[in-house]
Amino acid sequence: MIDPSQNLSAVRDIAIARGKVARIAPTIPESEARQVVDARGRVVTPGLIDLHVHVYDGVAPLGIPADPNCIAKGVTTVVDAGSAGAHTFPNLRKYVVNVVDTRVFALLNISVVGQSTLSPDNPWGELIDLCLANPTLAIRAIEQNRDVILGLKIRMTENIAGRHDLDALKLTREASDAVGLPLMVHIGGSFSTLPKMLDLMRRGDVITHTFRAGAGGILGANLRVLPEVRKAVAGGVRLDVGYGAGSFGWSVAEAALKQDLAPGTISSDVHQ
Ligand SMILES: [Zn+2]
Q1: What are the residues whose beta carbon lies below 5 Å from ligand 1 (ion)?
Q2: CB 60 within 8 A of CB 114
Q3: How far is the CA of 62 from the centre of ligand 1 (A)?
Q4: Which end of the chain is more exposed for a tag (fewer CB within 10 A), N or C?
Q5: CB burial class (10 A; 0-12, 13-18, 19+) of residue 248?
Q6: How many CB atoms lie within 10 A of CB 54?
Q7: What spacing in Å lies between the alpha carbon of 80 and ligand 1's midpoint?
Q8: Beta strand 2-3 pairing with 13-17
Q9: pLDDT digits (tens, 9 = 90+) for 94-148
């Protein structure tokens, strides 16, 4: 059993009564139980939290159904990271958040269409036209859904945010400041440099795909962590993994860890 809230990582028996944990002890006699589940060799833990998933199945082309991919795998709470924007959020709420068993929160994409454009057969992302970045509509959607929306999301890759990526980030900043919630920035392969983006980020904001390989990442010459990244982290910017298969480079992660730069959160970015 692993429970960080109790500093516990050990072999334990767990008694459950009326759907709740009743007792945790090195051994609990089987004779006291009506039903015994043998969990030897497995990890028993409180529900995991995944800070970056895409569960707007059927609307965001890369989305996946929440329950088979989240709660069925031990992840009880997730944050959908920008699958929906102001125009598509109402139905993320209606058809996903309100009906699935997984507890779903969301970051609202600054683009009104969310991540509904990009797919393997349509390489143009949600901010390729800057007109789709609308802080006024984002603010309104957030004010109406503060119980679900925890912040904003922007993807800064060039085929998504074009050459006006910093303008789009400024609009995201505007919405973020207006509602007093953080923003998450998806980095990598951008037109503008990472230090220029970090200039627009504040305490509590999140970089996702932190250990991505290739251009626009956290490492500079000789695989050294960029000084601007260290400064941002010292100022309270959080580093998220956002694994997503293609958004994680082992060589980058290993180099960063050797320089004592560790992620704050390990998220999956699970998607199709
Ligand atoms: Zn993502």
Answers
A1: 81, 269
A2: yes
A3: 9
A4: C
A5: middle
A6: 26
A7: 8
A8: unpaired
A9: 999 999 999 999 999 999 999 999 999 999 999 999 999 999 999 999 999 999 9
